[in-house]
Amino acid sequence: MAFKTNDSQQYSLTDSMNNLTSRELKALEKSWAKVFAEDIFPAIDEEPFRVLYSSRTQCRANTPVNICVGALIIKEMFQNSDDDIVESLMLDTRYQYALHTTSYEEQPLSDKTLSRFRERCYNYEATYGVDLLHDCITGLSKQIAHIMNISPKIRRMDSLMIEANIKNLSRAELLYTCVSKFVIYLHKNKQDSLLTGLEHYYDPNDFNRAFYYSNSNETADRIKVILEDADKLLMSCGQEFDDVTEYQLLVRCLSEQTVVEGAIRRLKTKEDSGMDSSVLQNPSDPDATFREKAGKQHRGYVANVDEAVGKNGSVVLDYQLEQNNYSDSQFLKDSLERNGSQEEGSVVVADGAYFGEENSRLAQKQNINLVTTAITGIEISEIYADFLLNEEGTRVLKCPAGHTPKSSCYSKGGGGHIYVSFPREQCINCPHKEQCQVKVHKKVCSLTISATAQFRAKAKRMMGTEEFHLLARLRNGVETLPSILRRIYHTDRMPVRGCIRSRFFFGCKIAALNVRKLFTYKNGLGHYAQNSLLQTIC
Fold first, then answer.
1. Model-level pTM?
2. Nearest CA among 69, 491, 482 for reference residue 305
3. What is the pLDDT of residues 498-528, one digit of tens each?
């Protein structure tokens, strides 16, 4: 299929718009379709998607990319299925108007168009590591922010758990399922000669018989049999099926969940270690990982949203979705590296989970003021912020009282600590003695400080300022995003599995959220809490 841009649309005499009454036209002008048609559709950049198609001009042209992307966004706006959006485009003038297809004799979407487009995007990212849709959505987000006159000078971040579309399996059920899937694969591919004694695994009712219609006291015996059957499979198959997904998942599951002692395979225990959050949760979604947060267990993914906020509302400028063992601190680092240095100073506000010295220093280099609303870790005295260190953070030059230390020794292997001492008489009568928490010796007073401790002290001091309290109030608004994404856009019920596919759908939901924000703004329906800080910065 050859790539062709949808550069223009000719207005024809048979255009469906000609058949609308003045009343219908007025209703259309007030609908979401007008905003989408005028502000969103023209801003969809088709060119980056050229790599998905053939360069041969003799091939049949692709369905316009801007129509595919636009349809996927509208689909999420109204929580439609693929069939729903195809049908709506055929029968509803609003959809045609929004996607600039009112002059088409035959609407360009079929039941397979969207699924094939998505698959092309999935395969490209899997091969080259490039998420084409992400760049498209973030480009649209910037356009929406521009229309709404929202500057990126103030941004706020938050993360949310995304549950994978999988069943929670016990270890016995997981092992059984991996064995069963590989047996079914062999059976479908006429390899029954390898399945002697294992035929029951491809019986659809075998799982229920093994787990639901049996005594729970038999679990240990059942696991023993499953492990023996797994070993039989591995021995009979050798390396012939190394490239088969079902075989790979079985091998992975056994390596993560079991150990072999002598000739006997058994389940791993705590003493064996080697089991972490990345272990296989369900072979139906090998990318899903495990995480416990706020007393709840999660299996799946975690998403990060980066939202710009201004006097006219807010827009999600960027997003990221990864396995759920990805830290908030790493999300922030990725965002800083991805967005690069800012010509104009900006502020990023996040909660304590994003806190970190490395991120703060990187933000500072990029002309970004990083503000976290909490500090995790050991309590630190604010007085440490007043110590003067050299640029490398390896030596104390002055104490808060202005005294030069008698000695300053840096321990690189000890967490970057600086062991410093002052003459005893200087510290004994110093008003900062209690805050510095010095140790008093016969001739000197000593303390331990580090560049990290100083950074934490400065952050703590900043939390006492009026500006900080205004920024903290501003950050609270981002807490609504996870709720909206769950309640309205059903992020915990993704119709797909796998990190790449989930990220694609999440991106479409972010775009739908932003389009609704734009519609609300253009129709004067928004009610925005005003923060005095927005008046001075934006």
1. 0.87
2. 482
3. 999 999 999 999 999 999 999 999 988 765 5
Asked whether the beta carbons of 44 and 73 are under 8 A apart, the reply is no
Q: Which of 363, 283, 296 is nearest to 324 (CA)?
A: 296
- The string of pLDDT tens digits covering residues 175-217 is 999 999 999 999 999 999 999 999 999 999 999 988 887 676 7
Q: Domains of the chain (ranges plus CATH)?
A: 16-130 (no CATH), 154-162+295-375+463-537 (3.30.420.10), 171-283 (no CATH), 382-451 (no CATH)
pLDDT at 466: 75
As a three-state string, the secondary structure of 456-474 is: HHHHHHHCCCHHHHHHHHH
Closest CA to 516 of 31, 27, 69, 26: 31
Answer for the pair 360, 339: CB distance below 8 angstroms, yes or no: no
- For residues 387, 391, 395 and 396, what is the CA-based torsion angle, rounded to 10 degrees? -20
- Cα dist. 138→23, 135, 242, 381 in Å? 36, 5, 39, 41
Integer Cα distance of 359 and 332 in angstroms? 7
- Kindly indicate the confidence band of residue 269, based on its pLDDT and cuts at 50, 70 and 90: confident
Please state, in angstroms and rounded to a whole number, the distance separating the CA atoms of residues 432 and 368: 32
Residues 6 or more apart from 514 whose CB is under 8 A from it? 140, 141, 144, 315, 316
pLDDT of amino acid 382: 87
Lowest model confidence (mean pLDDT) among 56-70, 469-483, 508-522:
469-483
Give the residue among 229, 242, 180 at the shortest CA–CA distance from 205.
Answer: 180
pLDDT above 70 (res 165): yes
Q: Which two tokens stand for residue 313?
A: 């509302």
- The enclosing H or E element of 310 equals strand 296-310
pLDDT at position 535 is 56
- C-alpha span between 433 and 401 (Å, rounded): 10
Torsions phi, psi of 453, nearest 5?
Answer: -60, -40
Distance CA 298, CA 482 (A): 15
Q: Which tokens is 249 given? A: 């998942």
Give the integer Cα–Cα distance in Å for 61 and 67: 14
pLDDT in tens, 383-408: 988 999 998 889 999 999 999 999 99
Helix 499-522 crosses helix 480-487 at what angle (to 10 degrees)? 110
Residues 482, 484, 490, 491: is their CA dihedral positive or negative?
A: negative
CA distance 320 to 181: 32
Q: For residue 410, is it left (φ>0), alpha (ψ between -120 and 50) or beta?
A: beta
Per-position b or e across 223-253, b if 16+ CB within 10 A of its CB:
beebbebbbbbbeebeeebeeeebbbbbbeb
Dig out the tokens for 522 from the structure: 């253009």
